[in-house]
Amino acid sequence: MAGGVKQNTDLGDERFLEYTETFTTTGSTDPLRFERSDEGIVIQLSGTATSFTAIVERATNDPASASANWAPADSNPLSGNASTGIVPVRFDEPVRGWWRLRVTAISGGNLVVYIAGKPA
Questions:
Q1: pLDDT surpassing 60 at residue 2
Q2: Is the overall model pTM greater than 0.85, yes or no?
């Protein structure tokens, strides 16, 4: 279901790539290439889904190549009730790479995914 909206925000000496996509079924966001920054990568989930599970993944190899190496960025998946609010999650990584969020289960509505970070 990839096909979210990308927006580059320029705040003078800081640039951010912001991405938003709404899921009603399982699927993955587009791969997003970020580099390390003091702000890290922020993922915020909202919507009307009463239950969801999603896994944040990152790759150090180009996902379009034969050597794509997607792996979970954290050992715990994100899950809960989006309609009651989910605390934003921040990731700090030492090197640039590609990031995506993979929705593995969803019911009771939609899940709005927002991802922001410094573009590579």
A1: no
A2: yes
